[in-house]
């Protein structure tokens, strides 16, 4: 009886010790997760959002420059502007994957900050453009310099957040894109008023000021974008947390610089037919939307609005995109049906295009403004959810990096060539 009693006591003690150990693991896991999430929310995400805004400013400020007689000063026509934009997107495609391979080797802080600095400098150099060749070269180099920022930043976010946390953060990250698109025409309208100051055209002020802003952002990124090693936890706590991340992400994300992306992995990702519908869907949407980032202010001028007024009104569609993104992100989280949410968002955009096509000749200029604004607002509300959906279903951080690099980089190169000459809008 005494032996049996001692055995029961020993078993009870072991069970209690095991429960205490599990509680300790859970506590350390929660502490590490809270610290990781806090650092990501307060430093990583805001800095990448600002970087995304500067990226979008340098890409889309040509829209305001065109309303400031940029094309006539450098003696190019609309076909050349379209060609320049297509060369920019081809530059993005050419270096999208190589850029992310480099990021995987050297780490986000060094590579992303250098990248933002380079495309900021290229944006500034556009003030020296005087002819067709100079325009085409600067647009090409701008695309090459910007290649990889979006997938690189989203990969960086995926190393800080679990699957459950990622969707909302990706949506917030895209606030940088659409916030930059919204601010660009407003800032452009203000800078165009400097036309003639210091011997510079208004469009030169646009390229100079917004390019210098990107250079300033790159310095901030270099000094303040945190790395995982800054988390003040013991190696034991880090190992415990890795167990927690493993439960959430299916596989822990290796720190940047510790992994290698092979050509075989790149090829397998590109030839994975299950990913093709994602790439095709994004290509179809961006083929119709990306030209609007260049021509919306010019379209509004053709509708009868003054230059400054047209630039200011162009911001409304991008501002409305922000609540649209939040709405679809909320739908995705509540339903946990990411595929269905993406389909609904794209279908809503398709309806907006059809209404624009059928109604544009039956309304006045304010009605047309409303139709174009609705198209701009609904075009890419699906995009953040689609990106997080792709990332969540990748089996490794390397596959995630390549998949996101492919996603969204092709549509722009095949964007439509809108005809806004001779007072008519023949885009849709």
Describe this structure in words.
The protein has helices spanning 2-60, 62-67, 70-73, 78-106, 108-125, 132-146, 149-158, 163-192, 202-224, 235-249, 263-270, 276-289, 292-302, 307-335, 338-359, 365-378, 383-392, 397-406. The protein is mainly alpha-helical. It has a single domain (2-423), classed as Up-down Bundle (Growth Hormone, Chain: A), CATH 1.20.1250. The longest helix has 59 residues, at 2-60. It is globular, with a radius of gyration of 25 Å. The termini are far apart. Keywords: Membrane, Transmembrane, Transmembrane helix, Transport.
Brief description of this entry?
With 428 residues, the protein is mainly alpha-helical. It is 76% helix and 0% strand. It has 18 helices and no strands.
Q: What is the structural class? A: mainly alpha
Summed up, the domain count is 1
Assign the CATH architecture: Up-down Bundle
Q: What is the straight-line distance between the termini?
A: 89 Å
Number of strands: 0
The CATH class is Mainly Alpha
Spell out the CATH superfamily.
MFS general substrate transporter like domains
- Assign a percent range to the helix content: over 70%
Which term fits the overall shape?
globular
Beta-strand percentage?
A: under 5%
- Biggest sheet overview: none
Chain oligomer state: single chain
Could you name the ranges where pLDDT drops below 50 across 5 or more consecutive residues? 233-252
Number of helices: 18
Task: Determine the CATH topology.
Answer: Growth Hormone, Chain: A
The average pLDDT is 82
Membrane topology: Multi-pass membrane protein
Organism: Penicillium solitum
GO molecular function, one term: transmembrane transporter activity
Protein name: Major facilitator superfamily (MFS) profile domain-containing protein
């Amino acid at each position: 009886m005494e032996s049996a009693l001692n055995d029961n006591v020993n078993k009870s003690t072991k069970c209690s010790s095991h429960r205490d150990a599990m509680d300790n693991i859970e506590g350390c896991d929660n502490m590490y997760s809270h610290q990781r999430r806090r650092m990501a929310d307060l430093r990583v995400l805001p800095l990448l959002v600002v970087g995304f805004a500067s990226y979008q400013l340098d890409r889309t400020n040509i829209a305001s420059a065109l309303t400031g007689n940029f094309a006539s000063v450098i003696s190019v026509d609309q076909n050349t502007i379209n060609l320049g934009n297509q060369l920019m997107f081809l530059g993005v495609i050419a270096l999208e994957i190589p850029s992310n391979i480099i990021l995987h080797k050297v780490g986000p802080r060094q590579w992303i900050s250098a990248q933002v600095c380079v495309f900021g400098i290229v944006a500034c150099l556009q003030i020296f453009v005087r002819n067709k060749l100079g325009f085409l070269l600067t647009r090409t180099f701008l695309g090459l310099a910007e290649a990889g920022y979006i997938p690189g930043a989203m990969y960086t976010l995926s190393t800080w957040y679990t699957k459950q946390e990622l969707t909302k953060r990706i949506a917030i990250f895209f606030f940088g894109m659409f916030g930059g698109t919204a601010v660009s025409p407003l800032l452009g309208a203000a800078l165009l008023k400097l036309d003639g100051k210091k011997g510079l055209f208004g469009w030169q002020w646009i390229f100079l000021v917004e390019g210098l802003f990107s250079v300033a952002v790159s310095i901030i990124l270099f000094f303040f974008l945190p790395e995982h090693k800054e988390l003040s936890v013991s190696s034991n706590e880090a190992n415990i947390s890795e167990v927690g991340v493993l439960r959430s992400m299916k596989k822990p994300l290796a720190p940047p610089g510790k992994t290698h992306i092979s050509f075989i992995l790149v090829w397998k990702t590109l030839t994975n037919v299950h990913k093709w519908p994602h790439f095709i869907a994004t290509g179809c949407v961006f083929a119709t939307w990306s030209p609007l980032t260049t021509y919306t202010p010019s379209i509004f001028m053709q509708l009868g609005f003054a230059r400054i007024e047209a630039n200011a009104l162009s911001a409304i569609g991008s501002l409305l995109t922000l609540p649209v993104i939040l709405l679809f992100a909320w739908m995705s989280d509540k339903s946990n049906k990411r595929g269905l949410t993406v389909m609904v968002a794209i279908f809503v955009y398709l309806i907006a295009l059809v209404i624009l096509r059928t109604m544009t000749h039956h309304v006045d200029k304010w009605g047309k403004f409303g139709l174009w604004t609705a198209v701009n607002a609904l075009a890419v509300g699906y995009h953040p959810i689609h990106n997080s959906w792709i990332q969540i279903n990748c089996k490794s951080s390397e596959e995630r990096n390549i998949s996101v690099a492919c996603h969204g980089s092709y549509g722009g190169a095949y964007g439509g060539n809108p005809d806004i000459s001779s007072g008519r809008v023949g885009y849709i």
